[in-house]
Amino acid sequence: MLGTLLDVAPSLGLTLAFEDELWDIAEGGERLGAPDTVQALFTLGGDGTLLRGARWLDGHNVPILGINLGRLGFLTSSSATDFEEGVRRFARGDFVSEARMALESCALDRDGNERCAWRSLNDVVLHKGGFARVVRFTVFVDDEPIGSYSADGLVVSTPTGSTGYSLSAGGPIVVPTVESIVLTPVSPHTLAMRPLVLPPQVEVKVRADDGPEELLVTIDGQVGTTFTGGETLVVRRARSSVQIVRFPGTTFFTRLRRKLGWGGLSERDGDAAI
């Protein structure tokens, strides 16, 4: 695949730059520099690779073309079999750049000082580690307490992330262009605690009240930090969105049917055979 990219790039007017691990094996191209030096980002892998690429861009307005080399590839736009055509379509401008809302989050220590900060395209999750006890925490929206939760954790997701961990925990599917922040408790101890869809401009704070001595904050399922009682997790809409490449003729509902079996297993199985 890297060889094919290097072969077709000159005729398409593309200059390729690879992150260090790929540059070592690509036998061509340049080393990838800072995010502000790129005009487009190609990710080779699956949804996790695209999420990592979105965080690496750190808010820069750069379209991301995801090329799926894995199994699901819900966020990606091209498969391993048609990636060359996808690259050619991208080079001639035959694509739509779809703005996706992202999140900015930070962990505040007991004194209110910021000790960690992140951007995420999918979600921010506060959860226990290997402990069997539930976590007790209070959630605030714009500094108003909305309730105390007893659960295994809490998923704070974007519309894009609504089809990820939030969905597995019983959260709603949100069309990616309907900007909102979704709160989904993980295995809540009380059935009254249901997922909650919030306006995108609010600020969410989560404070752990009781439970295991050490919790975890996970960003897009990939990075994060430990979290202890008395600390506060703050999540808000990011100032800039993530630009995901989509090709004409593909829609969010098409991907739901093909990737997640939306509408029935028979349709999903039929599409998989195409």
UniProtKB/TrEMBL annotation:
Protein name per UniProt: NAD kinase
Source organism (scientific name): Gemmatimonas phototrophica
Keywords: ATP-binding, Cytoplasm, Kinase, NAD, NADP, Nucleotide-binding, Transferase
GO CC entries: cytoplasm
InterPro entries on file: ATP-NAD_kinase_N, ATP-NAD_kinase_PpnK-typ_C, NAD/diacylglycerol_kinase_sf, NADK
Lineage of the organism: Bacteria, Pseudomonadati, Gemmatimonadota, Gemmatimonadia, Gemmatimonadales
Active-site positions on this chain: D47
Catalysed conversion reaction: NAD(+) + ATP = ADP + NADP(+) + H(+)
Family: Belongs to the NAD kinase family.
EC number: 2.7.1.23
Residues that coordinate or bind NAD(+): D47, G48, R52, N122, D123, R133, D152, T163, G164, Y165, S166, L167, S168, Q222
Domain of life: Bacteria
GO molecular function: ATP binding; metal ion binding; NAD binding; NAD+ kinase activity
GO biological process, one term: NAD+ metabolic process
Function: Involved in the regulation of the intracellular balance of NAD and NADP, and is a key enzyme in the biosynthesis of NADP. Catalyzes specifically the phosphorylation on 2'-hydroxyl of the adenosine moiety of NAD to yield NADP.
PANTHER family from the UniProt entry: NAD KINASE
Pfam families named in the record: NAD_kinase, NAD_kinase_C
Family matches, as Gene3D superfamilies: Probable inorganic polyphosphate/atp-NAD kinase, domain 1 (3.40.50.10330), Probable inorganic polyphosphate/atp-NAD kinase, domain 2 (2.60.200.30)
Compartments reported by the entry: Cytoplasm
Names of required cofactors: a divalent metal cation
